[in-house]
Design the sequence.
């Protein structure tokens, strides 16, 4: 574990029946970084994600967040510790209004958000074109806005680490571009962001550091240029390995 | 600072604005004026339609707002009723017996609900199993109470009475004032009204919004930082307390209780009241519960053997044609119609020359 790591994943193992989903994965996320995890389908990205937020229990290894061992912590407590997340399949409350969706995470905070968290939240609402008083049913707003709404909901809690699982899935190029721009700006304010993503154009646009997963292991790690220069990474993506 | 008026007029229940407020005031005034146009006996019967409202409100919170369907609310109804009978019966002659009995009944029901709910929610039992588990609890209670016919089944001086039930349960009294006739009617009405307003404030509060979130997607809610197990448990205990309140009122009204009150048929009734009115809105449940209890009473007191068949058929029809409930559907139609007429008068104003 490096000194400045906000999240440290240490030899994490998880299998489902006979299938090994993550096999001794170790990964550090430096505070203030904007890191992307890429890899083909079934590489173990989403499993790793679920282990960090506590949706699955792990079979071995350790997860440390802000210096605290959260391996066996309740998911809701991890969120209160400063983890904010969105799911791979959009999970806003579809039957409730946009306003209700934005109010629900607010009630989880005891007291006030910090000034920084407050600013990030306001910026996100503005740049994602979300209205706190919008009475539209969340199921009836456009897909990309539902994705943005979910990110805003995650930011409402004032997280220190934002975990996003395929935030641009199903978005048109300009919507993806806006998402990337907002995430970059949020990151500039000091927010650490970890993104699981397929869209290489998006990853190229935002990532300061890229981790490639393959068959449940960390396959490569480095800057986007270092990683994409590697022949074997191309082979994985083209299914040659 | 929390403003009680904003909680009462919040968006999570039916009815807002001046016209609704006036209508509600008229209905409340009509109930308060009951002695002017109903006999003592008739008012006592109206109490019967009212006394089930707290239990229905509890189920509405639990099922409609929190997404947890309990088929066993009558268990807490029965526990409170029997506990009141035992405590107040043993203290008969003491003027504080009924109050102690009421507090005891509420406390025992809450403890049973807390223990049962703890195992269910903290074990993260899947929600579709819950109707079965809660039903099993109430049927176990019925079976147990049914075999308490012998003389050995007594607590102090009170007989449990097997399938014949417990009789001679004392009426409610405070000091020397015994509630019956009009006074019991006011007690039942006051409690129903209080429970309704309290629930309405709850669903419009922060906690109410989290309840809705749990109903919609429990995992998502947990990932926003809420301990959903604790939230569900609290609502479960609150619903049990409300059912227990109905149970207390029931035994204080009729002075008896039998195991059939916690049986299968009785267990189904609250679910029917809540579903027919519309489980998503408290006011719809209040109206549905009152109307169905009235209907049931009219049918069965006129000697109609098919009262429950008719109530059951009503449920089937409502579920087929108004799956959100009768009152909720009607309120939606009225709301849309008034929105349309407002929009058209708006246009009329604009097009008329200045």
Sequence:
């Amino acid at each position: 574990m490096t000194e400045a790591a906000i999240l440290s994943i240490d030899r994490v193992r998880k299998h489902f029946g006979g299938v090994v989903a993550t096999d001794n994965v170790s990964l550090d996320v430096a505070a203030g970084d904007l890191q992307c995890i890429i890899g083909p389908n079934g590489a173990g990205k989403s499993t790793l994600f679920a282990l960090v937020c506590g949706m699955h229990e792990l079979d071995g290894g350790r997860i440390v967040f802000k210096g605290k061992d959260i391996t066996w912590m309740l998911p809701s407590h991890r969120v209160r510790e400063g983890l904010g997340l969105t799911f791979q399949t959009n999970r806003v409350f579809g039957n409730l209004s946009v306003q209700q969706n934005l109010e629900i995470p607010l009630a989880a905070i005891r007291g006030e958000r910090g000034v920084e968290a407050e600013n990030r939240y306001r910026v996100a609402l503005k740049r994602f074109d979300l209205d706190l008083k919008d009475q539209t049913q969340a199921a009836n707003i456009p897909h990309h806005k539902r994705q943005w709404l979910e990110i805003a909901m995650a930011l409402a809690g004032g997280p220190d680490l934002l975990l996003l699982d395929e935030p641009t899935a199903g978005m048109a190029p300009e919507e993806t571009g806006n998402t990337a721009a907002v995430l970059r700006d949020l990151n500039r304010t000091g927010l650490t962001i970890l993104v699981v993503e397929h869209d290489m154009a998006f990853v190229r646009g935002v990532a300061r550091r890229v981790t490639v997963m393959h068959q449940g292991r960390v396959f490569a790690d480095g800057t986007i240029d270092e990683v994409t220069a590697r022949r074997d990474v191309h082979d994985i993506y083209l299914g040659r390995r | 600072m929390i403003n009680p008026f904003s909680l009462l007029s919040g968006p999570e229940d039916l009815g807002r604005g001046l016209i609704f407020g006036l209508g509600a005031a008229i209905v409340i005034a009509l109930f308060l004026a009951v002695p002017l146009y109903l006999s003592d006996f008739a008012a006592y019967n109206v109490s019967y339609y009212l006394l089930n409202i707290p239990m229905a409100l509890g189920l509405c919170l639990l099922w409609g707002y929190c997404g947890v369907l309990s088929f066993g609310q009558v268990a807490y109804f029965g526990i409170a009723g029997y506990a009141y009978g035992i405590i107040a019966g043993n203290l008969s002659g003491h003027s504080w017996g009924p109050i102690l009995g009421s507090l005891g009944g509420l406390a025992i029901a809450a403890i049973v609900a807390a223990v049962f709910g703890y195992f269910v929610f903290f074990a993260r039992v899947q929600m579709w199993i819950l109707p079965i588990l809660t039903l099993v609890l109430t049927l176990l209670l019925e079976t147990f109470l049914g075999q308490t016919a012998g003389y050995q089944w007594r607590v102090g001086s009170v007989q449990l009475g097997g399938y014949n039930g417990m009789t001679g349960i004392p009426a409610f009294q405070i000091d020397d004032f015994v509630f019956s006739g009009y006074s019991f009617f006011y007690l039942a009405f006051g409690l129903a009204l209080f429970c309704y307003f309290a629930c309405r404030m709850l669903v419009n509060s922060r906690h109410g919004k989290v309840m809705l979130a749990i109903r919609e997607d429990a995992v998502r809610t947990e990932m926003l930082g809420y301990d959903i197990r604790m939230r569900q448990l609290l609502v479960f205990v609150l619903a049990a307390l409300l059912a227990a309140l109905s149970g207390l009122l029931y035994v204080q009204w009729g002075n008896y209780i039998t195991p059939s009150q916690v049986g299968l048929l009785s267990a189904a009734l609250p679910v029917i009241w809540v579903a027919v009115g519309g489980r998503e809105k408290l006011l719809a449940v209040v109206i549905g519960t009152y109307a169905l209890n009235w209907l049931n009473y009219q049918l069965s007191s006129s000697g109609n053997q098919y009262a429950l068949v008719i109530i059951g058929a009503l449920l089937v029809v409502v579920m087929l044609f108004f799956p959100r409930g009768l009152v909720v559907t009607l309120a939606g139609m009225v709301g849309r119609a008034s929105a349309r007429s407002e929009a058209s008068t708006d246009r009329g104003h604009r097009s008329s020359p200045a």
In short: The first helix of chain A runs from residue 45 to 53. The mean pLDDT of chain A is 89.
